[in-house]
């Protein structure tokens, strides 16, 4: 599969993006294996779904501009951590930490950075556990370490984040309305955090 993705006559940019897609495959497989094992041993799936993406060229260009990153491929690889993104949606909050620990214990995974927006949510209410990791991909005659951003969240956290993301990109909203929506979104984030806690308690009872 990798050989189909990477041709020697590809442009350097396309080659790098193919490497990131390979890194996504590696990380996705690791989570799928863990889900399979839990399904076999405990008859339950801690993962509801996995959504992966490579950053769009448009969003990458914006980040490079906003952060004044030199536009060489080396500088981009060095400074941008979320070109490859794997989002893991879990049923319960405790599964997030359990899966993160299982991943980080694997001997080919290196943790670069951890951002726990569950223990310390963003001021707008955003919650998720972010891991920046490095994972090797094995090519024809080379091993290459690639960075991947893993976002782990519950269904409730994902529901909130996707709605907030849509609202944030709505243009032409008056300042008053923006403030009102921000307050309502924060209220909803707190409500959904409470719901996650209640669901976890119910699960812990059985
Ligand atoms: P996309 O691709 O549209 O998802 P870093 O460069 O990693 O040090 P950054 O980028 O601020 O700094 O990292 P952070 O805060 O960990 O957030 C990165 C990603 O987390 C975002 O990607 C979102 O996917 C998600 N995220 C963070 N904060 C919020 C938030 O307030 N609301 C929502 N809906 N998602 C959030 P991008 O870059 O926005 O792009």
From TrEMBL:
Signal peptide: none annotated. Residues 52-175 form the RelA/SpoT domain. Pathway: Purine metabolism; ppGpp biosynthesis; ppGpp from GTP: step 1/2. It comes from the Bacteria. This is GTP pyrophosphokinase. It comes from Faecalimonas umbilicata. The chain holds residues 38 to 243 of 243 of the full protein.
């Amino acid at each position: 599969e990798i050989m189909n993705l990477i041709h020697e006559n590809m442009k350097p940019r396309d080659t790098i993006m193919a490497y990131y897609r390979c890194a996504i495959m590696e990380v996705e497989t690791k989570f799928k294996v863990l889900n399979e094992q839990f399904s076999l041993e405990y008859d339950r799936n801690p993962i509801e779904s996995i959504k992966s993406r490579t950053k769009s060229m448009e969003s990458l260009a914006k980040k490079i501009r906003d952060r004044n990153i030199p536009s060489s491929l080396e500088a981009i690889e060095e400074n941008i951590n979320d070109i490859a993104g794997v989002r893991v949606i879990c049923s319960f909050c405790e599964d997030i930490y359990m899966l993160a620990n299982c991943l980080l214990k694997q001997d080919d995974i290196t943790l670069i950075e951890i951002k726990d927006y569950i223990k310390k949510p963003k001021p707008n209410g955003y919650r998720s556990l972010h891991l920046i990791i490095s994972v090797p991909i094995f090519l024809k005659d080379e091993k290459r370490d690639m960075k991947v951003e893993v976002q782990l969240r519950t269904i409730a956290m994902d529901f909130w984040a996707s709605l907030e993301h849509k609202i944030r990109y709505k243009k032409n909203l008056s300042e008053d309305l923006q403030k009102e929506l921000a307050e309502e979104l924060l209220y909803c984030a707190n409500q959904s955090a409470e719901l996650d806690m209640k669901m976890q308690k119910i699960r812990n009872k059985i």
